[in-house]
Description:
The protein is mainly alpha-helical. It is built from 6 helices and 2 strands; from the N terminus they run ββαααααα.
Amino acid sequence: xxxxxxxxxxxxxxxxxxxxxxxxxxxxxxxxxxxxxxxxxxxxxxxxxxxxxxxxxxxxxxxxxxxxxxxxxxxxxxxxxxxxxxxxxxxxxxxxxxxxxxxxxxxxxxxxxxxxxxxxxxxxxxxxxxxxxxxxxxxxxxxxxxxxxxxxxxxxxxxxxxxxxxxxxxxxxxxxxxxxxxxxxxxxxxxxxxxxxxxxxxxxxxxxxxxxxxxxxxxxxx
Length: 222
């Protein structure tokens, strides 16, 4: 038979409980970890188009953090600047980042029209590519223009309704009665309405009874 293992004795009264082991230190954020292939002049944060980019990320993925730049545009900017797509953006010099920013500013002149995000601009008629804060500014101007000319889309924007023809029966309801009324609530409302109607009928009968009794009393007196 196996030997019985002795149970540990409980700690004596009055003794403080054993201290817990300290929690392991958290790993530093990846944004401030120096990558192994970093150069001497490595920059942890790169300022590009009024946006702070993580220097540890590659050029292809770092540029996509700028509003208005997607994978296709990031590839085009890196190729036009002659920079490797997989190079960390923190390893680039300030001259190289400025070169990419200049290429992005005149991208509509070096790529086909279907690649830009604002073809046939209403003000200039040119094909433009917007990025950074210009995206929000032009969108706001477009909405204000539609409101001023009283187009259907402008009116829907003013009312806070959906603009692109979506159904608003279930989603996007902005009236006072938001949500679905349950059957029990409908039945309770109908019952309350019937009680109100029944009370009104009884009041009318009570009011009509004295008026009907008055001619009969006059006839008896005569």
